[in-house]
UniProtKB/TrEMBL annotation:
<dbReference type="GO" id="GO:0106310">
    <property type="term" value="F:protein serine kinase activity"/>
</dbReference>
<feature type="transmembrane region" description="Helical">
    <location>
        <begin position="209"/>
        <end position="228"/>
    </location>
</feature>
<keyword id="KW-0472">Membrane</keyword>
<dbReference type="InterPro" id="IPR000719">
    <property type="entry name" value="Prot_kinase_dom"/>
</dbReference>
<dbReference type="GO" id="GO:0004674">
    <property type="term" value="F:protein serine/threonine kinase activity"/>
</dbReference>
<dbReference type="GO" id="GO:0005524">
    <property type="term" value="F:ATP binding"/>
</dbReference>
<keyword id="KW-0067">ATP-binding</keyword>
<keyword id="KW-0547">Nucleotide-binding</keyword>
<feature type="region of interest" description="Disordered">
    <location>
        <begin position="311"/>
        <end position="335"/>
    </location>
</feature>
<feature type="region of interest" description="Disordered">
    <location>
        <begin position="1"/>
        <end position="22"/>
    </location>
</feature>
<dbReference type="GO" id="GO:0007165">
    <property type="term" value="P:signal transduction"/>
</dbReference>
<keyword id="KW-0418">Kinase</keyword>
<dbReference type="Pfam" id="PF03822">
    <property type="entry name" value="NAF"/>
</dbReference>
<keyword id="KW-1133">Transmembrane helix</keyword>
<protein>
    <recommendedName>
        <fullName>non-specific serine/threonine protein kinase</fullName>
        <ecNumber>2.7.11.1</ecNumber>
    </recommendedName>
</protein>
<feature type="compositionally biased region" description="Basic and acidic residues">
    <location>
        <begin position="311"/>
        <end position="320"/>
    </location>
</feature>
<feature type="domain" description="Protein kinase">
    <location>
        <begin position="28"/>
        <end position="282"/>
    </location>
</feature>
């Protein structure tokens, strides 16, 4: 259970027992209980500073330690950190005390899509809109090596604008969990929405499994009932194996053709995300949302026609405006003043930096980014970056602990632009993150291998991996491996 939106039958007294009178860690006022599971409870809360409503998932640390689910929780955090999309419930931050872990998440006011469908089938245009948003979110995840594996209307929420938000990545998987045969082997999912190849327990392609579930969801939205159902679960499984379903008379021929391709029992023949996006029924009225992430917030660019932009959004920061060139006099004054302290990494950020749970290779095309831990002063790191830039005649733009290096040569994809940012890991250690923001991949790799890495090598710590892992455990107040 990653998120809930409506109060359950749990009494108010049980809610009050789990909340303090003072704001949680001085930042959030905890409100009513929204829902609960085996290891966690979800509360409505309010950000004391901004007044913004959020949902906070409170996880009992003792329970996850006893159940051996620490790695599972870390993986879920890392996944949610990376799959930030307008149609996916956002994880804002993770906090921890000695007994609890807190996921601070987007509060989605409209409730579950399931509640809407329970009242009856949807009109075709509305069902199509939800399906389009679902496929946009699922395609975004798949492009980043993340597979949900439990898609169903109960895990699809609606915001106040009536837009769909995918939630509950608790059963999701990432590419590094695939076995040598290239398949996943964990049986998971909800029976009515599970693909036939998962039932066979011979291994499956998780992307194809998600697509099957999307097909079942589309059928449910349009029909108001399941394509494969029976009170006897084994009989239902047999129906899923055969893939035989009857479409209601109000289904159009185009919709039936799409459903037949989505619910093909042969995963090798099942339709793919790009093919879905080119389907005639799907494309009607489809708008592909462009967005970028700035200051850790999702920012939408105006909607553009799908025909003009078929693929998922480009690099998270590629649409942001470049920082203006500082005036020489101001730059001189800035050098004379001390640099501000780097932003500290909370548990939320740390897990995405931790090598054991770092998914950056899956999320930046070609691995166009790198991180390393350093014990050097921030000023020394920035000076070194300036020296490297000077050697290759790159322009340097600085803002606090962020340094942008920009080449002058105009390639096919524009000038090479590299962003570096320094974060505080511990009082004595910092993490330096390097990302390609623009330009040719080959030119970026050549610059990194010949100039950047050799130039920064003396500032890197050999024990960087253990330093980050130790910092993660400390941030979450978890016992280290040596304890």
């Amino acid at each position: 259970m990653a998120h809930a939106t409506a109060p359950t039958s749990t009494s108010t007294s049980s809610s009050s027992k789990d909340q303090n009178q003072s704001p949680l860690l001085g930042r959030y006022e905890i409100g009513k209980l929204l829902g609960h599971g085996t290891f966690a409870k979800v509360y409505h809360a309010r950000n004391v500073k901004s007044g913004e409503s959020v949902a906070i998932k409170v996880i009992d640390k003792e329970k996850i330690l006893k159940s051996g689910l620490v790695a599972h929780i870390k993986r879920e955090i890392s996944i949610l950190r990376r799959v930030r999309h307008p149609n996916i419930v956002q994880l804002f931050e993770v906090m921890a005390t000695k007994s609890k872990i807190y996921f601070v998440m987007e509060y989605v006011r409209g409730g579950e899509l399931f509640n809407k469908v329970a009242k009856g089938r949807l009109k075709e245009d509305l069902a199509r809109k939800y399906f389009q948003q679902l496929i946009s979110a699922v395609g975004f995840c798949h492009a980043r090596g993340v597979y949900h594996r439990d898609l169903k209307p109960e895990n699809l929420l609606l915001d106040e604008n009536g837009d769909l938000k995918v939630s509950d990545f608790g059963l999701s998987a990432v590419s590094d969990q695939i076995r040598q045969d290239g398949l996943f082997h964990t049986f998971c999912g909800t029976p009515a929405y599970v693909a036939p190849e998962v039932l066979s327990r011979k291994g499956y392609d998780a992307a194809k499994v998600d697509i099957w579930s999307c097909g079942v969801i589309l059928f449910v939205l349009m029909a108001g009932y399941l394509p494969f159902q029976d009170q006897n679960i084994m009989v239902m499984y047999k129906k899923i194996y055969k893939g035989e379903f009857r479409s209601p008379r109000w289904f159009s021929p185009d919709l039936i053709r799409l459903l037949t391709k989505l619910l093909d029992t042969n995963p090798d023949k099942r339709i793919t995300i790009p093919e879905i996006m080119e389907n005639r029924w799907f494309r009607k009225g489809f708008k592909h949302i462009k967005f970028y992430i700035e200051d850790d917030k999702l920012c939408n660019v105006e909607d553009v026609d799908h025909a003009d932009d078929v693929g998922p959004c480009s690099d998270d920061h590629s649409l942001s405006e470049p920082e203006p060139e500082p005036e020489p006099e101001l730059e001189t004054k800035r050098k004379l003043t001390s640099l501000p302290r780097p932003a500290s990494l909370n548990a939320f950020d740390l897990i995405s930096f931790s090598p054991g749970f770092d998914l950056s290779g899956l999320f930046e095309e070609g691995g166009e980014g790198a991180r390393f831990v350093s014990g050097a002063p921030v000023s020394k790191i920035i000076t070194k970056l300036e020296e490297i830039a000077k050697v290759v005649s790159f322009t340097v733009r600085k803002k606090d602990c962020r340094v942008s290096l920009e080449g002058s040569r105009e390639g096919v994809k524009g000038p090479l632009t590299i962003a570096t940012e320094i974060f505080e890991l511990t009082p004595k250690l910092v993490v330096v993150e390097v990302k390609k923001k623009g330009g040719d991949r080959g030119e970026y790799e050549e610059f990194c291998n010949k100039e950047l890495k050799p130039g920064l090598e003396n500032l890197m710590l050999d024990e960087s991996e253990s330093a980050v892992v130790a910092a993660v455990d400390d941030a979450l107040h978890l016992p280290s491996d040596t304890e």
